[in-house]
Amino acid sequence: RRERQRFVDKNGRCNVQHGNLGGESSRYLSDFFTTLVDLKWRWNLLIFLLTYTVAWLVMASMWWGIAYLRGDLHQAHGDTYSPCVANVYNFPSAFLFFVETEATIGYGHRYITERCPEGIVLFLFQSLLGSVVDAFLIGCMFIKMSQPKKRAETLMFSHAAVISQRDAKLCLMFRVGNLRNSHMVSAQIRCKLIKSRQTPEGEFLPLDQCELDVGFGTGADQLFLVSPLTICHEINSESPFFCLSQRSLRSEQFEIVVILEGIVETTGMTCQARTSYTEDEVLWGHRFLPVMSLEDGFFRVDYSQFHATFEVPTPPYSVKE
């Protein structure tokens, strides 16, 4: 096999990196929430911990500062003296008071007195700021945990694509499957052929994208994915593979990107799974082994044969020939 750079990996990851953004990198900050959701988990957890730690220390320092400026740290908190916050004598006690207030624990030992207007204002500011921080960070973590990316891992694609005859027509075929019992609602599949070409004007297109028809006109691209399905692209005069033969397949360089989209039945969120096939992963004159069998009252899918193929008599010529 010839090892070369793929545009899309088998697991669906796109091998594209954006560089030299210049001033355009500020667009990431303008949509900071999406940027935070797109970060990896380790950075999300780090930002989550740092934000709460810094906010807690800053707010605790403000409560300690009020007590320090009022002289509450050096006064006996008795019946004759009314501090801003009762039983706050140092920074640890101010930090504990802030945590009790923010978490609405309320042990009852530390509390704000009515003779401290600056403490009341700071308490209102703390409540508003805490609500904003909680909504932002917890909402970000919830959206990140509920993303349907993991659902795409239970959508399978065959390791190879095959070319053989079906209904007396030469077809390019590959197989898709759903490992979960929950369905993909409104599942739709699309295929893109990525191949370099040169236009008649001399312009070189290194990653030209061309649509492969997998049943758009007949509705065959709308899948009822309750069992493994074989997706078929008919090679005809409208197909980019019209001149492809068994011999020319060995010298071609192309990549077929497959995109499967649908709505996760349990969450209602849109899920997308991707894979790709290079010319080395297209088997001429092969067909997929059957995986369905009828048992006592139900159909059984044997996923051990999901990727298996066998040879069938296929003309080595292109459709054009």
TrEMBL record:
The keyword Transmembrane helix applies. The keyword Membrane applies. The chain crosses the membrane at residues 45-66, 120-143. The record marks D134 as: Role in the control of polyamine-mediated channel gating and in the blocking by intracellular magnesium. InterPro entries: Ig_E-set, IRK_C, K_chnl_inward-rec_Kir, K_chnl_inward-rec_Kir3.1, K_chnl_inward-rec_Kir_cyto, Kir_TM. GO terms for biological process: potassium ion import across plasma membrane; regulation of monoatomic ion transmembrane transport. It is found in: Membrane. Pfam families: IRK (PF01007), IRK_C (PF17655). Residues 8-148 form the Potassium channel inwardly rectifying transmembrane domain. It catalyses: K(+)(in) = K(+)(out). Coiled coil: none annotated. One of its GO terms (molecular function) is G-protein activated inward rectifier potassium channel activity. Belongs to the inward rectifier-type potassium channel (TC 1.A.2.1) family. KCNJ3 subfamily. This is G protein-activated inward rectifier potassium channel 1. It comes from Picathartes gymnocephalus (White-necked rockfowl). The gene is Kcnj3_1.
